[in-house]
Amino acid sequence: MATGKEIDIQLLREDLIGELEAINQYQDHLDDIESDEAAKVLEHIMADEKEHVAELMKIIQEMDTQQAEKFKKKTP
């Protein structure tokens, strides 16, 4: 049975997925949009989503020490 902390981490990871999907969607729209004004708005929103990703990654690492160690590990 999952603990409260494990459920919290799972929910945060689901939120992270949503933010990453949103970034990809905004980028797809930016690739096709013609309006400069609309593009500026989408770029601003996408930047906010990227900040959300960083915030979620930070809290996930604080709550999941094994995940945090993976980020500290250097790749060859």
What does this structure look like?
The protein is mostly helical and 76 residues long. It has helices at residues 4-32, 36-63, 65-72. It has a domain at 36-66. It is 86% helix and 0% strand. Helix 1 packs antiparallel against helix 2 (36-63) and helix 2 (36-63) packs across helix 3. The protein is elongated, with a radius of gyration of 16 Å. The N and C termini lie far apart (37 Å). The model has no long low-confidence stretch (mean pLDDT 95).
| Cα-based radius of gyration, to the nearest Å | 16 Å
Helix segment tally: 3
Which range does the strand content fall in?
under 5%
Count the beta strands.
Answer: 0
Order of helices and strands: HHH
Q: Sketch the major β-sheet.
A: none
Q: What number is the mean pLDDT? A: 95
Helix content: over 70%
Query: CA-to-CA gap between the ends?
Result: 37 Å
User: What is the subunit arrangement here?
Assistant: single chain
Low-confidence stretches: none
What is the global morphology? elongated
Explain briefly what this protein structure is:
By secondary structure, the chain is an all-alpha fold. The protein has 3 helices and no strands.
What structural keywords apply?
single chain, mainly alpha, elongated
Give a topology summary.
Blueprint: H1 4-32, H2 36-63, H3 65-72
Helix pairs in contact: 1-2, 2-3
